Amino acid sequence: MTPSVRRRFAGAALRTLRQRLNLGQAGMAAKVGLSVSYLSQLENDDRPITPSVAEALARAFPFDWSLPDADQSAVRLEGFRAAIADPLFADLASPEQMHRIVEQQPALADHFIRLHDAYRRGEERRQIADEALTSGAPGGGRLPWEEVRDWFHEAGNYVDPIDRAAEAMAQALDAEPLPEALLVHLLKADHGIDTVSADGEMPDRPMRVFDAQAGLLTIDRALPAETRRFFLAQQLGMLVFADQIAAVTGAAALSEQARRLLGLGLANYAAAALLMPYGRFRTTARQVRHDIDRLCRRFGVSFEQACHRLSTLQRPGARGLPVFFCRVDMAGNITKRHSATRLQFARFGGACPLWIVHEAVAIPDRILVQLAKTPDEVRYVSMAKGLVKPSGSYTRSPRRFAVALGCEVEHADAFIYADGLDIANAAAATPIGISCRLCPRQRCDQRAFPPADRQLLIDPDVRNVVPYQVL
Predict the structure, then answer these.
(1) Domain that holds residue 350
(2) How many domains would you assign to the chain?
(3) Alpha-helical runs (H) found in 340-445
(4) CATH (domain of 107)
(5) Which of 112, 145, 164 is the last residue of a domain?
(6) Does residue 335 lie in a domain region?
């Protein structure tokens, strides 16, 4: 005899959520897809929260709604829902069936979650190995920076002990944004380190130099204020969170050079977490609907720093908007990347030329938006902005690149950059791929080379944009 599904009532939680969001019953009912009378019955505990209603609430309010008194069953359901969202399992189970499986067959659900996680990690390792074979690294192995990049990817781009320690320090300092003068004072008062500015006349000067023996930190005076503050926070993070950084790097299965690079990456992570403490940054991002310019002003950070920080909001139980983030240079190389969405970046080769980020590289200081659709029919809202980092001298070329941030279309209400897009029109989405090597689209005027896993039809009597057809 199988156990019955436990009935859950959440009237008070529903009413509190609606009032906090300043929604009337009609407005909330419309967002969830319920009638006003049905919502009223739920709020008065005349009806329990059914699996389909729970799913609808989770979709409508992804970071605001969770059932009260969540237990292991709720955690299991979230993991099962995430696994079954893989396009491999399209339409495999309805919300009601998912809830029944989790409640009645918890062992089966746990095995399914572990199996899917093993499959996903196996695919990632296969891609890593594939990339290593074509990277030109000695012995076909990964380069140290690739090891570190993959480490952050497998960690979900979130490092809990460092993030929480930095957040606690930011709360104790109680200043927003953290003033540069305060960071300079902390380095001197707590660590005996003086901070000076470079004279700006030396060719090929480093942006930052730390002389531990002399207790001196030198920062290029030509740098923007937000970059200077980041370097100060980075130096402070190296000192204050040295134990946490050492523990994480010591446990990482990396080469010696990669461990040193990871230590630097974790210091950068600590700096971002100190300047943009998790709870305040996540709350503010939700309030301004992830408007990057407003976040920059609020926390005194650069556009890239704010975008990157949004991609790290992966704390269990308090996740931010699931976004993808990347940085692309003038040659189309992806130099930073992370995705908490179903979109995964190509591990080698260039990104899809139809993606708006390539146009953004050539148009600095202008935000471009795009509604795009990948071959698995998932639609995404993308924002991209070209940036120029000045060199401080005519003799040194400025660095030019673009950053991109996006989310799945289901979260468009929380993403201000979706406001001008025709979200309701599925045909309005630009069809993009991960890369030409992996893209199965049969007709694409921008294809650079054929997909690796498809047969080609070559007809000498017919010529299209490319001299073959993809079967």
Answers:
(1) 321-471
(2) 2
(3) 357-362
(4) 1.10.260
(5) 112
(6) yes
Q: How large is the average pLDDT for residues 236-252?
A: 95
Question: What pLDDT score was predicted for residue 153?
Answer: 84
Non-local (6+) Cβ contacts of 344 within 8 A are: 434
Q: What is the average per-residue pLDDT within 399-409?
A: 93
Mean per-residue pLDDT, 318-333:
89
Residue 272 falls within a domain, yes or no?
A: no
Beta-sheet strand order (sheet of 430-431): 334-339, 323-329, 399-408, 379-389, 367-373, 430-431
- Determine the Cα–Cα distance for residues 383 and 416; give it in Å rounded to an integer: 10
- The answer for 227, left when phi > 0, alpha when psi is -120 to 50, beta otherwise, is alpha
* Alpha-helix residue ranges (DSSP H) falling in 139-291: 144-154, 160-173, 180-191, 225-240, 242-251, 256-275, 278-287
Q: How many CB atoms sit inside 10 A of residue 191's CB?
A: 14
CA distance 457 to 342: 31
Going by their DSSP bridges, the two strands 208-211 and 216-220 should be labelled as antiparallel
Instruction: Give the residue-averaged pLDDT of 276-291.
Output: 96
Task: Compare 160 and 89 and report the one with higher pLDDT.
Answer: 160
**According to the model, what pLDDT value does residue 270 have?**
97
Tokens of 389: 């980092």
* Residue 250 domain flag: no
Q: What is the pTM of this model?
A: 0.72
CA atoms within 13 A of residue 430's CA, in its CB half-sphere: 17
Q: What is the DSSP string of 59-125?
A: HHSTTT---SS--HHHHHHHHHHHHHTSGGGTTS--HHHHHHHHHH-HHHHHHHHHHHHHHHHHHHH
Q: Contact at 8 Å (CB) between 404 and 386?
A: no
Q: Which residue has the higher pLDDT, 118 or 336?
A: 336
Q: Are 87 and 378 in contact (CB under 8 A)?
A: yes
Measured at the alpha carbon of residue 185, what is the angle toward residues 182 and 188, in degrees to the nearest 5? 155
**Of 77, 112, 147, the domain-final residue:** 112
Q: Looking at the domain assignment, is residue 155 inside a domain?
A: no
Q: Are 290 and 367 in contact (CB under 8 A)?
A: no
Residues sharing a CB contact under 8 Å with residue 40, sequence separation 6 or more, in sequence order = 25
The CATH number covering residue 453 comes to 3.30.450
